[in-house]
Write a structure and sequence with these properties.
- The structure is a single chain.
- The chain is of the alpha+beta class.
- 32% of the residues lie in helices and 21% in strands.
- The chain has one domain.
- It contains 4 helices and 6 strands, in the order H-E-H-H-E-E-E-E-H-E.
- Strands 1, 2, 3, 4, 5 and 6 form a 6-stranded antiparallel beta sheet that branches.
Amino acid sequence: MGHTKKFTISIIILILGSCGGVGHVQFYNFIPSKTDVKQELIRVINFNGEYTAPAHWNHYEDGKDNLEDIFIYFKNGPKELYRVGFNNYDDQSEYKDKTTLALVAVFDGHLWHSERDLTRSEESRIEKRFETEILSKMKFSYTLE
């Protein structure tokens, strides 16, 4: 698939996802810039390698179309890989004063699951885990969308 076609598909998915059509799990809004939020998120993930995916899960990161994706591995029960992504709306005025981070999907070792695949209790557990183990360790606060 050509670069242009991949880019177009990625944009369509992002647009649908921002409207709730693709099945994100949750959106989180931050006031600081995307660069600052991304650096802080990566700092938390990489601290002592606690949330870095092991080598045998790394191939699930290959081939991703969206360069904004970040993967977070939870090794303690249940073992999961979370895919999060930043908005690409830097040029739109309604996003000028906020950075939006989406909890996009969860990989259980076999399959990727998004909002449409999860029960409400699974979704709540995943959101709580992400907020408690990752977002609470960041120096920036957030609001839910």
